[in-house]
Amino acid sequence: MSSLPTFVGLDYHQDSVQVCVLDSEGRTLANRSVRNEADLIARFALQHGTPQRVAIEACCGAADLAEELVTHRNLPVQLAHPGYVGMKPCRWIADRGI
User: Fold this and answer.
1) Mean pLDDT to the nearest integer, 21-47
2) Whole-model pTM?
3) Euclidean distance between the first and the last CA atom of the chain, given in angstroms as a whole number
4) For 52, 66, 70, 92, which has the most beta carbons within 10 A of its beta carbon?
5) Is 43 helix (H, G, I), strand (E, B) or coil?
6) Which DSSP letter does residue 67 get?
7) Sequence ranges of the domains in the chain
8) Could you tell me which of 49, 15, 61 has the C-alpha nearest to residue 35?
9) Is a pLDDT exceeding 60 seen at residue 79?
10) How far, in whole angstroms, is CA 80 from its chain's centroid?
11) Which residue has the higher pLDDT, 81 or 83?
12) Containing H/E element for 93?
């Protein structure tokens, strides 16, 4: 694991989660679909640096995943309204650490 500070966005789906990892400048370091399992998601996010914030859209099932990532993987997860975050470009999200 790198000590590079990163920001992670999770797009939750029942069977998979799209994981996008950005550096502090808003550049995409990784963006891929991962099976919806907290261990796999955390491992993928941590491969690219140290997450400063992890945002996941607030929808059915997402709260359970968020709780597992916080409680068992010690990731700084925040639930986000999908309509609000979805309208913002990646650069805006990275600048604000969302």
Assistant:
1) 95
2) 0.81
3) 22
4) 66
5) helix
6) H
7) 5-92
8) 15
9) yes
10) 11
11) 81
12) helix 90-96
